[in-house]
Amino acid sequence: MFNVLQFVAYYLQSIHLNLFYLPAFRIEELAMIEKIVINPGSMLCFAPKEQKRKKKVGPAHLQCVNVRYDGYGPDRTHIPLTKISWVKSFPGYLPSQYTSDDVLAKPQWADPPLDSPKVRVPAYNTLDGPVDRRSHHGLYKLNEGVPRNPRGRTGMIGRGVLGRWGPNHTATPIITRWARTKTGAIREVDGKRVLETVAVRSRTGWALPCELVVPGDKLGYGTRRAFLTELVRNKSKRAADDANRSLSQLFSEGTVIYKGYVDDAKNTDNAWLETVSVNFHDDSGTRFGCFRLAEDFTWVEANFSLTVFAQHKEWLREVVELRRAHW
Predict the structure, then answer these.
(1) d(CA 300, CA 195)
(2) Distances in Å between the alpha carbon of 189 and those of 179, 198, 301, 313, 327?
(3) CA distance 145 to 124
(4) Which end of the chain offers a freer environment for a tag, N or C, measured as fewer CB atoms within 10 Å?
(5) What whole-number distance in Å separates Cα of residue 5 and Cα of residue 20?
């Protein structure tokens, strides 16, 4: 069990949430936070190396409980922390309902509304044609014909802004290199080398690049495409081809850091985010040398003081430990 002080330390030090978005839990609930075991699962977009790690224990999802949807959307039904789990009886549970107009407009990346004429019911828990509806955590249950969030209640039904019923798969590549001085030497702090990672600005700080996985895409492709946009504009075709081959090799040598559920404010009882996070490390510091980052990307130092989105900080810390770098 977490006590209140451990709960606050977990959020301020590990997740670095903006206090404005801190869920409105009652003090008596904070002391009764439930722990669950994260099961990495077995599903992969491709087959990089996977770090052997002990199973981690962490709190049930919290960013999608007792807060407005995604920080600015409709209010969720309040849920005591002891009632998040589906195994806990909650007779008075009446979740609010929300699916965004963008999702209901039937874009290609979203499932059509189930009440649409001649709509085909998705084949949940399977590879449903080009759409992977399997979860990294095994089979999920259905409730009234739609998937039920395996992590528990969120206070909202529908899909919110997520396109798919059930798991919505994303890729979170962690691109790293060694920080260097002006002379080109690897920078050190307290005798340990300093890592840099590619990040983007978020509402509350920084976030790792994250993209929805669509049929035919490979993990890290969106980040590589951002690099190549600048490369092709500024380099010859031969240089572009050479750099593309070098970078493609780098993106085939990743180490899996995490696979599974993402504690995200977009999740609902019926739709949630899952990700595969893989570290792609340029140890020599030469593979990114001829690339310029696109406007939305930048290199930042990966360290304890970095204000980074949600679980991303935990994954960065694992990468730092893997590379025996300064934290």
Answers:
(1) 9
(2) 11, 20, 12, 19, 9
(3) 10
(4) N
(5) 18
Residue 273's alpha-carbon distances to 171, 233, 260, 303, in angstroms, are: 10, 34, 9, 26
Which helix (H) or strand (E) segment is 232 a member of?
A: helix 221-234
Q: What is the pLDDT along the chain (327 residues), one digit of tens a residue?
A: 434 444 334 333 333 333 333 344 343 333 333 332 223 332 333 445 555 554 454 456 888 888 889 877 899 999 999 999 999 999 999 999 999 999 999 998 999 999 888 889 999 999 999 999 999 999 999 999 999 999 999 999 999 999 999 999 998 989 999 999 999 999 999 999 999 999 988 877 899 988 888 765 655 555 556 555 555 555 677 776 776 777 777 777 789 999 999 999 999 999 999 999 999 998 988 777 666 777 778 899 999 999 987 789 999 999 999 999 999
- The SS3 call for residue 256 is strand
